[in-house]
Amino acid sequence: MTATAAATTTPARRRARTGGPGDRSKLLENLAGWTLVVVIAMLVTQLGLM
């Protein structure tokens, strides 16, 4: 990789937000996860699978 190619790709990497571990939506992610767990538990109970 040349210096010019490295210089052109660096700003694009800084702007790209992919939702990785650096995001600050930890609370929302936890709430969504626990909501999914509760909904699946209710479904399993209603269908009599357990």
Features:
50 residues, mainly alpha, 2 helices
Written overview of the protein:
With 50 residues, the protein is an all-alpha fold. The protein is built from two helices and no strands. The chain is elongated.
Strand content: under 5%
Average pLDDT figure: 78
Radius of gyration: 21 Å
Name the helicity range: over 70%
List the uncertain runs.
none
Number of strands: 0
Task: Write a compact overview of the structure shown.
It contains 2 helices and no strands.
Topology readout:
Layout: H1 3-15, H2 26-47
